[in-house]
Design brief:
There is one protein chain. The protein is an all-alpha fold. It folds into 2 domains: 85 residues, Orthogonal Bundle (Helicase, Ruva Protein, domain 3); 68 residues, Homeodomain-like (Arc Repressor Mutant, subunit A, Orthogonal Bundle). 51% of the residues lie in helices and 2% in strands. It is built from 7 helices and 2 strands; from the N terminus they run H-E-H-H-E-H-H-H-H. A two-stranded parallel sheet has the order 1-2. Helix 6 crosses helix 7. The longest helix is centred in the last third of the chain and has 19 residues. The chain is globular and about 55 Å long.
Length: 163
């Protein structure tokens, strides 16, 4: 009997994450409650990244990501920035830039799309004096979607000056 690859068993990811959290919290003697259970969890954005990843390295790759999170995190809620750059770049969160802030010539499709999306959102925000509600309406997307994209793409939202 062969086990399908992790990319075909995405529903297993939360259970595997929990298992690996327990294992590596014990190994590192941190983030354990009185019953010896892990108190760690991934923030929703980080878990979404894990769920969307194709996992070419299968379960071992996921295990390495969770082990890294246990070692690097300082709080019981693991943020997305603790995940390896390769996972973040795979869905366009981080973009490789040169020293002048210009997108690298060998940027991936994900990086190019993220950069286009980032620039489009910034342009829309600038046109409406950084009103996120008006920008969302102008782009015909829900405000919650715009807010998620602003956070994921690390867009700095300037405060509107008081009238």
């Amino acid at each position: 009997m062969s086990l399908p690859p992790l990319r075909d068993r995405k529903d297993d990811i939360p259970f595997l994450v929990e298992y690996f959290f327990i294992r590596y919290c014990h190994e590192n003697e941190k983030f354990l409650n009185s019953e010896g259970r892990s108190t760690l969890s991934f923030e929703p954005e980080a878990m979404q990244i894990l769920m969307e990843h194709s996992w070419p390295g299968n379960v071992r790759e996921l295990e390495n990501v969770v082990e890294r999170a246990v070692v690097l995190t300082t709080a019981s809620s693991v943020p997305a920035h603790v995940l390896p750059d390769s996972l973040q770049q795979a869905i366009g969160i981080r973009t490789a830039r040169d020293n002048n802030g210009v997108l690298a010539a060998d940027a991936s499709l994900f990086e190019l799309v993220a950069e286009f999306e980032r620039r489009t959102i910034i342009d829309a925000l600038e046109r409406v004096n950084y009103s996120q509600t008006e920008a969302a309406e102008a782009m015909r997307i829900p405000l919650s979607t715009l807010n998620q994209k602003i956070k994921r793409l690390a867009i700095e939202v300037k405060r509107r000056p008081s009238q």
